[in-house]
Design brief:
Two copies of one chain form a homodimer. The first copy, chain A, has 20 helices and 17 strands. Chain A is an alpha/beta fold. Chain A has three domains: 162 residues, 3-Layer(aba) Sandwich (Rossmann fold); 132 residues, 3-Layer(aba) Sandwich (Rossmann fold), CATH 3.40.50.1220; 175 residues, 3-Layer(aba) Sandwich (Rossmann fold), CATH 3.40.50. Chain A has a seven-stranded mixed sheet with strand order 9-13-12-14-15-17-16, with helices on both faces. The first copy, chain A, has a six-stranded parallel sheet with strand order 2-1-3-4-6-5, with helices on both faces. A four-stranded parallel sheet of chain A has the order 8-7-10-11. In chain A, strand 7, helix 9 and strand 8 form a beta-alpha-beta unit. The termini of chain A are far apart. At the A-B interface, helix 2, helix 4, helix 7, helix 16 and helix 17 of A face helix 2, helix 4, helix 7, helix 16 and helix 17 of B.
Chain lengths: 514, 514
């Protein structure tokens, strides 16, 4: 078999059997191999940022690597922003990036660029294949690298001749190394903080935000009087009725400082010490109180769940928890579409096991409290701050979980980055309900312009933050890609459309004009 | 004044007074400075690949640097593919990339990445500003670097505090260095080739493809019996009635080898020795005959026009040329929409001084012969092979030349990459007529799948090359971004729609179903 076939077989062997693709000439042998190998599902994306974001969404929900097939340096470049987000989400992703044949590179043909240099800033592992005979093992090594806790970005560059030459053989995939346990010293330091008598916060992310991790953290908190909180952006939170509810550190610096100001001890559980998303003149970069002592229970790659179990034992935490049950909110009355009423609608109507892909940016900051009592669901966030993730993320999550409803809460500004994802949702008939919050602006930036001290902005500045003139018509754009939908401008209309979208089997889009 | 204002003032001083932007928080001071400084026109783009491609189109038509304002590493990453194309077009571009404040970087906030590493593969010049006092000079140095012949990509990274701190001052912009003259030895080598009696080709690109350069090359050819040809992809060709017509080296390797097989001498005029776009099993990378001796008259950065003038003198070329005038083609009869009939329509109806932005990919390969006799126009190509340039390129060209009609010939696959450009065309009311060749596939790849030897492709492979299921509705997508248009599926319909698009003042889109 040729190198391409050995790579596809190795990927299937390694459980990497979904690939989000946008291939070109140099990847044609990989494409041709798809029909020779059983078990690989390829999902065509019309832009590479869709492919990488979908691989992230797939990985977050499947708990195994998502993969992509990309076309040389520029194809990889188009996917880098969502690889940045995937890296911040600690998602395992394997990228296969086609390259000119090894002997062709030196001629500097028009599509030539330094692919390794482009890959490195967003990848934990980069390798260029050298011959067909070792491509299978290169693929196996990429899968192992991606699978390394907490989840890594592995990029394998595949020169065309290493794909088309014969002599390929399946790679041997190393067993996934278990997460290393935390040290006794880390447990002791956390115990000292919990027993200090000072206000103490357990700051969580990663697997600590799955239901079991949250339950452990809440039991520790119940016993010790500590509080729990999630960092601002997280790859996946399991929440809703019957689960422990957790608030997040707020995005605005002033609010974050205020929420954290009383804590004098902080225990990091997979998280890093909280940092402002951006710097602002005269505001701090570090959000914890200057007198707060910060301990690390577990780093992102360590055995976070084991550490929480150990700590729960040490403090004598209760074996179970009567989690205070938030009640499912009532549906709001009719009126203009505002954030609180949207949140209540989501909380009231969200079906069991829904997957929320949240790129609401400004509109969605207040969605958490009113959705605590919703049916159990997963909440996936924009982790790296690079907008244009939501629609691809929802696409990948829906491929990973075909039995679950995916609800994509999307800003109009961020949605425009990677709207091509809607076509893939239509082609694959994915069960994604997209809701675009149409405020016709980069609303976040209007606030940021003030925050950085740029007062009294003039017309030219405000023009750069406005999406009006002309208004985007999301229903028309979605229809153009095969996704039905409707526009609403009242809560009564929104609730009706939301019910219609939930009842649809397949993609549906609601443009909610704020 | 603060650093941001000093930078904007320096850019305006340096003639870099159009900026294609997609700003974020870290760029808010640059945005705020826009209202303090007269003379800077900012054009908002809803995706960074639109901004960089528009800067390229602007630069190609304005003959001075286009500029962009981008948001940190991921914003730059989204623009890299079209910077790759700009680099291959030898277009001068200045990128301003916002970055976290200098003191904030070490905290590794979510949007942090290695911006310099991302910039380098697609930039000739990269610098990170260090303080407000020198940002003006950094900007001046960026403009000088971009302006260096034949045109370079200069990327200035702007930490937020270097923008918001006071103490900025305008930079001093170095005079643009003239292109160095070619050597006597280069002239002599070219003369020996021309006098060898062997079949000789002058291979042109860059400024050699403007009207004056082409005329010089044609006069040399007329005197010496040499032939002239352009490389396959070129930033800009001046052509049409009254100008010298030049064919290009074909894209398919077999055709290119055939066209070049009889030449035993080749003189490079700004061009490089012709190379296959991709490698294919059993086909050559180098397209010239193995016995062809290749000489360089002028490299891309040398004084190409001066070299042609010198060579014309040396051979005693005629002072003027009775260029054989191709006639304007007749309009085709009705029938299905096919490439030859499209080309005839373009040739017959294209208005004087039109700017053609050609990303037709497969459909447009045969457009050149029938448009030779059209009214004088410029033809801009996809130079780096990274699809998704056409709509942004047309946007930038229209900003540079508001009095001229821009016609964007676009593939459906390539158009989907950066369709957000249509919104900018609507907002700025740019006079762009977009024609999408809707063949519902990555048609080029169907051929390439065969070319690389992957025969009898199966359903899964073909699915990766098809844009059907569902069909894209371009008219609906364009309407969603404020651009009117219509779909046509016959030549009579196309001709009528083309006339309507030409008559429109502002953007218009035709979806031509093939």
């Amino acid at each position: 078999m040729n190198g391409a076939e050995s790579l596809v077989r190795t990927m299937v062997d390694g459980g990497v059997d979904v690939c989000f693709t946008n291939p070109g000439t140099s990847e044609m042998h990989f494409v041709a191999a798809l029909d020779k190998v059983e078990g690989m599902r390829c999902v065509l994306c019309l832009f590479e940022g869709v492919a990488t974001g979908a691989a992230d969404g797939y990985a977050r929900m499947a708990d195994r690597p998502g993969s992509t097939l990309l076309h040389l340096g520029p194809g990889l470049a188009n996917g880098l922003a969502n690889l940045h987000n995937a890296r911040r989400a600690m998602s395992p992703v394997v990228n296969i990036v086609g390259e000119h044949a090894t002997y062709h590179r030196k001629h500097d043909a028009p599509l030539t660029s330094d692919i390794e240099a482009l890959a490195r800033p967003m990848s934990h592992w980069v390798r260029t294949a050298t011959e067909a005979g070792s491509v299978g093992q290169d693929g196996a090594d990429a899968i192992a690298a991606a699978s390394r806790a907490p989840g890594q970005i592995a990029t394998l560059i595949l020169p065309a001749d290493t794909a088309w030459n014969e002599g390929g053989s399946r790679g041997r995939i190393a067993a996934i190394e278990p997460r290393p346990p935390v040290s006794r010293a880390a447990i002791d330091a956390s115990l000292r903080a919990l027993r200090s008598g000072e206000p103490t916060l357990l700051l969580l992310t990663g697997v600590a935000l799955r239901a079991h991790g949250l339950s452990l953290a809440a039991r520790i908190a119940e016993k010790t009087g500590a509080r729990i909180m999630a960092q601002y952006s997280n790859g996946r939170i399991e929440r809703g009725a019957g689960r422990v509810s957790v608030e997040r550190v707020p995005y605005p610096v002033d609010q974050a400082v205020k929420v954290l100001q009383d804590f004098r001890r902080m225990i990091l559980v997979g998280a890093k010490a909280p940092v402002a998303f951006f710097a602002y003149p005269g505001k701090p970069s570090l959000l914890a109180h200057p007198d707060c002592r910060i301990e690390t229970l577990a780093t992102a790659d360590e055995d976070i769940i084991g550490a929480l179990e150990w700590l729960a034992d040490e403090v004598g935490a209760p074996k179970s928890l009567a989690a205070p049950q938030a009640k499912r909110p009532d549906l709001p009355a009719d009126g203009p579409i505002v954030a609180e009423a949207i949140a209540a609608t989501l909380g009231a109507l969200m079906p069991e096991d829904a997957i929320i892909c949240d790129e609401s940016v400004t509109t969605g900051r207040g969605f958490f409290p009113l959705t605590r009592g919703a049916a159990p669901h997963d909440w996936l966030q924009l982790t790296g701050g690079s907008i244009g993730l939501g629609m691809p993320l929802a696409t990948g999550a829906a491929v990973a979980c075909p039995e679950r409803k995916v609800i994509n809460l999307e800003g109009d500004g961020s949605g425009m980055y990677t709207l091509q994802a809607l076509w893939t949702q239509a082609r694959e008939q994915l069960d994604v309900l997209t809701i675009v919050w149409s405020n016709r602006s980069y609303a976040i930036l209007k606030g940021e312009l003030m925050n950085v001290g740029a007062e009294n902005p003039g017309r030219k500045a405000l023009d750069m933050l406005s999406l009006g003139n002309p208004d985007l018509d999301w229903v028309s754009m979605a229809r153009g890609m095969g996704v039905p939908g409707q526009r609403v401008d009242s809560m009564a209309g929104f609730i009706k459309a939301f019910r219609a979208g939930l009842a649809a089997h397949g993609p549906y889009l609601i443009e909610a004009v704020l």
